[in-house]
Amino acid sequence: MKKLINEPDAVVDEMLEGMVAAHPGLRRLEGTEVVVRADAPVEGKVGIVTGGGSGHEPTHAGYIGDGMLDGAAAGEVFTSPTADQLSEMIQACDGGEGVFCVVKNYEGDVMNFETAIEMAEMEADTDVEYVVVDDDVAVEDSLYTSGRRGVAGTIFVHKVAGAMAHRGADLAEIERVAEKANDRVGTMGTALTSCVTPEKGEPTFDLGEDEIELGIGIHGEPGTERTEVMSADEITDHLAEAVLEDLDPAEGAEVATIVNGMGGTPLMELYVVNRRLQELLEDRGLETWNARVGDYMTSLDMMGCSITVLELDDELKELLAAPAETPGLTVTEG
Amino acid sequence: MKKLINEPDAVVDEMLEGMVAAHPGLRRLEGTEVVVRADAPVEGKVGIVTGGGSGHEPTHAGYIGDGMLDGAAAGEVFTSPTADQLSEMIQACDGGEGVFCVVKNYEGDVMNFETAIEMAEMEADTDVEYVVVDDDVAVEDSLYTSGRRGVAGTIFVHKVAGAMAHRGADLAEIERVAEKANDRVGTMGTALTSCVTPEKGEPTFDLGEDEIELGIGIHGEPGTERTEVMSADEITDHLAEAVLEDLDPAEGAEVATIVNGMGGTPLMELYVVNRRLQELLEDRGLETWNARVGDYMTSLDMMGCSITVLELDDELKELLAAPAETPGLTVTEG
């Protein structure tokens, strides 16, 4: 397998250098794989941070900027960041009002964040709260995870927490909206091909030429089933129906959606999926207020996509519509 | 090869439906594969339009919006739009000040645009001017092309022409800045794998497991050479040096750059390329004013990237910095 990399063990370091070189609003904490806003800490605002394994770009550091994240810690590919680096990030993003962490539900991430939070509280007396995002409706208790996994719905949690912090809310208010978004969002994904890690250089799992995997995790963790190749419409129906069954949105509810690419699928195909998704939502009497299509949380070079549906209320809509400017997501005024 | 599509011959139609469903600022001209601004034509402003084969998303319709394009015509995959549809687009985007067309240098595109322009002039008395973009420094007289090919540098031409029209410039002024941007931009690409068209379902060209192709075109047209797999830094040096040799920028010049993904390469790898590119430009005494990294002009699911360098002057900088809001590129005030 061919990749645009140098030494596999340098890929995270070199990627972060390339990100910071492209985006002047980002700064790397020296000697770490932590990226923060260039002007961090922002005085008088709760800092919003996240972190996790690399290989999911633009997740995580791609959502740093005004109205979203203050910091993101990058682990090695598909590996949690260390508690030391997470603690350093938390302390670097505390502008006096405390720090809120958005943690995806993987055992290593949760454990290292919990340790890091204790360290930051002990070492710097930082007030910290956190949410554990578990939007993947496919499976419970997967590889690396007790309970449900945290996947692309996390982008919505970043957005609402970031907007809430930007308008001056305190930790408790931010925790409330982050929990609300997590309660009201569901995601399910599919893989057409396996991802290939730089280290291993070959597929993480075997998938036949005529097979796809439904319910796949973003590290290639097993999903719900393997089936024969299906059409885009059939796949969309399968994913969207599983999400809606879990979410059970109110009749006539407004929703925000993401058709998320896994890294190796072209935008053309994601739009084909979005066409069917929007048709299906309309048939169900749901109203799409905002539809995102693109690579938001990838799995290296995996071909495939995930579908995310968030059931809105007025507060969530207002927070999603608030301006944000980051490398991976921009929302403009009005 | 597996793809998220339904019938191969429906893919362009379904992609356009999915785009328009995602982006309320876009509208499809009924019965065509033409997408325009929802509010087209904008009275009192020169309309900026483009078009070309599908499979390069977000090119072309992804750059429709305030400050960039008014319309984009989609051909079948890797096939020029018809003169009829191009003419319909031109007429739909004329708000009384005429229409400016950004044409990439492929024989079919140029021929069909020239015919369409004659049709629009005859049928609707529309004033039309155009630029033929030919930024690819790799080869002259390739498959489908006399002279150099038009590739990712076209994004800069869209941006400066769109900004100029937005501020009320006339056709001649827009033509001048579009020609200037085209004169000062160079691009070169590489493929790690072939693209796979929906129609054919197998690789367009054969590339060995240990081979890459330098100077590749965005339809898989032959490049300058095939070599053994190289590191990201070696590839970056090769591409950037070819571009700089052709461009021959002034000592100490300011530049804008794009590391463009071909569709199947993850963002992680594009940032690794950007790291080396910025290092090399600094070593050459050039100053990067703005660096873009992402999928701007793709080649279906091809793995690989291209590097674009634009030599700036004050006018081009001002036009690139002007606000724009499109699905594929957003520039915010300040």
What does this entry show, briefly?
2 copies of one chain form a homodimer. Chain A is α/β, with parallel strands linked by helices and 334 residues long. Chain A is 32% helix and 23% strand.
Q: Can you describe this structure?
A:
Chain A folds into two domains: about 170 residues, Rossmann fold (3-Layer(aba) Sandwich), CATH 3.40.50; about 140 residues, Hypothetical Protein Tm841, Chain: A,domain 3, CATH 3.30.1180.20. The longest helix of chain A is centred in the middle third of the chain and has 18 residues. Chain A contains eight helices and 14 strands. In chain A, helix 7 links the parallel strand 10 and strand 11. Chain A is an alpha/beta fold and about 325 residues long. At the A-B interface, helix 1, helix 6, helix 7 and strand 11 of A face helix 1, helix 6, helix 7 and strand 11 of B. Chains A, B: GO terms for molecular function: ATP binding; glycerone kinase activity. Chains A, B: InterPro entries: DhaK_1, DhaK_dom, Dihydroxyacetone_Kinase.
